[in-house]
Amino acid sequence: xxxxxxxxxxxxxxxxxxxxxxxxxxxxxxxxxxxxxxxxxxxxxxxxxxxxxxxxxxxxxxxxxxxxxxxxxxxxxxxxxxxxxxxxxxxxxxxxxxxxxxxxxxxxxxxxxxxxxxxxxxxxxxxxxxxxxxxxxxxxxxxxxxxxxxxxxxxxxxxxxxxxxxxxxxxxxxxxxxxxxxxxxxxxxxxxxxxxxxxxxxxxxxxxxxxxxxxxxxxxxxxxxxxxxxxxxxxxxxxxxxxxxxxxxxxxxxxxxxxxxxxxxxxxxxxxxxxxxxxxxxxxxxxxxxxxxxxxxxxxxxxxxxxxxxxxxxxxxxxxxxxxxxxxxxxxxxxxxxxxxxxxxxxxxxxxxxxxxxxxxxxxxxxxxxxxxxxxxxxxxxxxxxxxxxxxxxxxxxxxxxxxxxxxxxxxxxxxxxxxxxxxxxxxxxxxxxxxxxxxxxxxxxxxxxxxxxxxxxxxxxxxxxxxxxxxxxxxxxxxxxxxxxxxxxxx
Length: 492
Fold this sequence. Notes:
single chain, 492 residues, mainly alpha, elongated
């Protein structure tokens, strides 16, 4: 409801409301015309449905009654010609049946109080009329002189059929006069209705015309004032828009310059990033090579550590063998001591033997000398073995220290290898990141270039908008001139 009220407060709604008024007036005129034509139609329908059928029915009855009398006279006139007499009596029978049918139609017809009064008089006459008419037909069909005479008497001016026929004619004429009087009354009513209809149509037309003229004048006045106000406000708004467009144009020019500078900076940054990416790619390749070499060094150090361990095991085995030789030297010393002791004993026994033991004394002396040499050799071997054992122990100590140092080296090499692998992975990741940064810088560069182009386009569009607003301002002035019939200079 609120929206509808707002709509009719607007110019379109008001014009729509005024445009409805002619339709309302037209509908009113149509209703008056329809009412008038309805009344006229009712009068005509009454005449068509009541008067014309009634008059026609009465004329048919009057004609049938006259025809019946004619056929009676014809039958009497051709009394000697049986064929013609039968023809006329047959036609009379048909007419009599038709008159019965007309009377039945009259009975079925709706009647007003006056018609009902006349019909009651007819109900008193009609039975006697049909009774005489049927008796006349029966007498003629007997073909007797008495019957023919009865018909002649009934057809005389003072006869029964003629008198009843005259009563019927009188009633029918009274009914016809009643309907004609109603027709005259309807004619007067029709003329009065037509006169009132013309007066109503003229009055409604004048009223609607004056109402539309007044409303259009009122609407024209308030529309002119409203449009004048709107044009002034629109003009002020256009001036504000022009100022805003100037500011936007200046801002866009600055933005375009900044965008161009940003595009140059982004281009230089992208070039620097590409150089860094190339260096990182070379570093990544070197890191990959270093990682491979570190891995090989790690394998060689691990292999050296294993061989050093085997060397330590071999030196330990040599040290153990030297200790066993030292044991053998002790055994040799013991053997030399025992041999020397046996040689002494042999020498003693040889001396006791005298001459017989001289040869044995020489052997004993040789054995003693051999034992002495063996002891000296064993001592020399023991000294050499002790020196070798000392050197082996020192070498074993040095080998243990070397194994420890070599283990530290292997551990360091492993750490360096792991670090080189991590450096290689990180370098590849940095390479991927730099590639992504390069792509993003490319997109940023494209966006900045597009922004620069858009800024230039916006600047041109702002100029176009300024031109359009100037044109709109001119159109507003023309609209104000068209609505008010004067321009701003005339108003001033």
